[in-house]
């Protein structure tokens, strides 16, 4: 019972029941409205932590089946529809990528990559930040859980370096020496790398799926190309920006390369399994980028990669079974995608999009575009994850934008990116946030203050640099 917050659960129930019994608006099917009640209640339960995400997802699936909102009068079809999310290839892509990510951590390849960049770039705080961030960037395409990437690879190394440089978590007066700077740099870089590749965090494929439901097709390659320039500009600016507005007291870190070299020496030469992991990573990138040429989609490519790792012994079936994060994600993600998809197919998303779009019909798409992005972005204060925001709001905002004439692909990718970029705002805004905030190097006031500044920087870059880049590649 420790996983259940009864106060939040009661609030969740009240919200769901209230929406259920509100008179159904004209133009909306009753079962679509009732599905909305279950969907909103599930999201409220996740945000308020009434129960774990998996528990709320199972409750949502059960209610959809028991109330027959997905197939009135047909219990068999209703349960099949309620479980339809488990047949979605995008969801299995995320799960498969979790399994592949375990290979990076199990073999030690991810740690070796991070220490290698620290050895090369780590003579100054800026160099140290870029070294850690570059390791995150390289790992991002193959590790879809930015929480796993941050918590399993980057954070332990960052904290070790900070402690060795004199920033002791228990001594508040030492935090600004270098620990606070590296904490914010590594965390915000993780937000950036999360939006640069479709497979870099769980919310991106979710956005891809919802966009496809609205007629906007996004591939791994098209996402990467669109995010490349604004992503790299943000990647380069973050350490410099923080160095100016939140500078470390240390200006040199000459000991860091020696620490990294010592760790690499202890690890010894690359093992056969690490080389196999490198080869598999290259094969995966080729399949994900050029898969269309071979009629292989991203999920099939991930299956091929997992099979290689299993056959080579890099991973075992026990590793796959024990990857709790993957199975947990598959369960709750299936629930949210199922409900989001049926809200669209039952006509609710289209109805709401036209309703809100009607209020913006007097605006040109050039004016509506920034309004949609800004409202969507700063709503993230209410969310504890990008996936929750995408599930609750993405389809609606994308539908509104398309209705007023905003180019669909550009808006779909920007909205998908904002869900992660705005994780910078709060200490709970994304999965890695509690990990980095838990280091105690940055207090709550500074986290929120610098997070807001960072959100402004991100949006300026994506509007200005991104806008110009998207014009060049023909997105508008």
Automatic annotation (TrEMBL):
Subcellular location: Membrane
Pfam families, per the entry: Na_sulph_symp
InterPro entries the UniProt entry points to: CitT-rel, SLC13A/DASS
Signal peptide, first to last residue: none
UniProt keyword list: Membrane, Transmembrane, Transmembrane helix
Domain of life from the UniProt record: Bacteria
Record membrane topology: Multi-pass membrane protein
Family: Belongs to the SLC13A/DASS transporter (TC 2.A.47) family. DIT1 subfamily.
UniProt name for this protein: Anion permease
Organism expressing this protein natively: Pedobacter fastidiosus
